[in-house]
Design brief:
Strand content: 5-15%
Largest sheet: 4 strands, parallel
Number of strands: 8
Order of helices and strands: EHEHHEHEHHHHHEHHHEHHHEHEHHHHHH
CATH class of the largest domain: Alpha Beta
CATH topology of the largest domain: Rossmann fold
Bound molecules: iron/sulfur cluster
CATH architecture of the largest domain: 3-Layer(aba) Sandwich
Number of domains: 2
Helix content: 40-55%
Length: 444
């Protein structure tokens, strides 16, 4: 029997963990989405409503390319009930594709309103119907863990990348190490080996000779999540800032989003709390948390705030308006730059803007009496890799952790299991899923 060819949007490195989610399922052949390029995006732009969000056009272009050139007719897409439009993209895209004559397109929805309800598991049941084959429950569980573990490591690698590039002595070495690590991660599907992937990450980054004395400018790098992930859309702005000698603190990735949807992200709750005075509720995108990030970065004495978002993204445009209009909010002035992306900005124009922003940060630090000149502190991730590396024994201890305990400890950024929080979340999980019955959980 012919396998069903399934694919999804690439979203930067995110394809690595989405491949993990559908790894080795009977009747399923996962097609790796190709790198996004101008041609792919133009196809999406041609058939999209003019004022729809830019990520919609990029994803639609990817689908058209996969359908025409890779024989993919089955797509996995996220879906939810808002507050943002992203949850409805899939339904509209399917209709557009059908109107284009792609009558046999099918969309499989990964429900992401609240991952604790387990509604997202329906994607496996829908794929079973499509393939006519039953998936072993253990494979579904294994793939879920693969997804979580890989998403966690993708986030960790990208985060360290932002902190290390400004210190590298040999240009573009960070980029090479990141590509090596992402390839290793993509090809590793053994959960036991993945549980020790932290060591591989540290060892590879340690190969980069760095300037240990430097005290670089620090920026909070944030925005709408899809444009932050996809390098074709954001012109690899994070890399460009790093090359300019700026330490980049990337705020969001998909793992963080999944933790938020499991109600397990303490960081997001902290940011919500600090942003509440200005944005009292989730109004879409990352606007509320970005406001929190701005205030928190100010507190930490960062030098700037870089905010990127898609053209026509209302929540993030609202945040920009608030930051630009609200003078009293700046207890001390921190420069912020807002970049709207629609695939048609010229890279040189963008570079000129960030160079000017760099000079603004330098000037602000020297002359603005309101600037909070907090003492520079080397980030923990950099310390742990270059200044006080873990001992063999510490690596040995982490290597004997099971994948499950690894996933559980991920719930808390300090890597310690928060018992009270886990019990509370566990009780909520059972109350939300009473229709499953406890017995069915063991048959997952
Ligand atoms: S966050 Fe912005 S770009 Fe994304 S769906 Fe919402 S409005 Fe559109």
């Amino acid at each position: 029997m012919v396998n069903v060819r399934v694919s999804f949007s690439r979203m930067g490195w995110s394809y690595i963990f989405f491949k993990g989610l559908f790894h080795d399922l009977p009747g399923i052949e996962v097609v790796e989405p190709p790198l996004v390029n101008t041609e792919i995006v133009s196809e999406g732009v041609k058939v999209s409503p003019e004022f729809v969000c830019f990520p919609f056009k990029v994803i639609l272009g990817e689908m058209i390319n996969l359908y025409r050139n890779y024989d993919v007719k089955d797509f996995a897409m996220i879906a939810d009930y808002g507050p943002c439009r992203a949850g409805m993209y899939g339904v509209v895209q399917k209709r557009i594709l059908k109107n284009m004559g792609f009558k046999d397109v099918r969309m499989f929805y990964l429900r992401q309103d609240d991952f604790r309800t387990l509604e997202w598991l329906r994607i496996f049941r829908d794929l079973e119907k499509r393939t006519g084959k039953k998936f072993d429950d253990y494979k579904v569980l294994r793939n879920t863990l693969l997804f979580l573990a890989k998403a966690y490591y993708v986030e960790r690698i990208s985060h360290i990348e932002g902190l290390v590039r400004c210190r590298e002595k040999n240009k573009s070495m960070t980029t090479k190490v990141v590509h090596t690590l992402m390839n290793l991660l993509d090809n590793e599907n053994n959960l036991m080996k993945l549980s020790n992937f932290d060591r591989t990450i540290d060892e590879n980054f340690r190969k980069i000779p760095i300037d240990k004395e430097m005290e670089p400018l620090r920026v909070c790098y944030t925005g709408e999540i899809q444009v932050m992930l996809e390098k074709w859309v954001n012109y690899d702005l994070m890399g460009e800032l790093g090359v300019m000698g700026i330490e980049v603190h990337k705020q969001y990735d998909v793992f963080d989003w999944v933790m938020h949807k499991l109600n397990a992200s303490k960081r997001r709750r902290r940011l919500e709390h600090s942003a509440r005075k200005y944005i009292p509720m989730d109004c879409g995108g990352e606007a509320q948390w970005n406001m929190g990030s701005y205030l928190e970065s100010q507190e930490k004495g960062f030098d700037g705030f870089v905010h990127i978002f898609p053209f026509t993204c209302l929540p993030e445009i609202s945040l920009m308006g608030m930051l630009e209009a609200e003078k009293n909010m700046d207890k001390f002035y921190m420069p912020h730059i807002h970049i709207s992306l629609d695939g048609s900005s010229g890279f040189e124009g963008l570079r000129t803007r960030i160079e000017a922003f760099h000079d603004l940060m330098v000037g602000n630090k020297k002359t603005n009496p309101l600037f909070r000149d907090a003492k520079y502190v080397v980030p923990d991730e950099v310390k742990n890799i270059y200044f006080k590396p873990k001992s063999n024994f510490e690596y040995f201890l982490s290597s004997i952790e099971t994948p499950m305990s690894k996933v559980l400890t991920m719930l808390n950024p300090s890597k310690k299991l928060d018992v009270g929080f886990t019990v509370k979340n566990g009780l909520e999980f059972f109350s939300r899923n009473s229709f499953f019955g406890i017995g069915s959980l063991f048959n997952l």
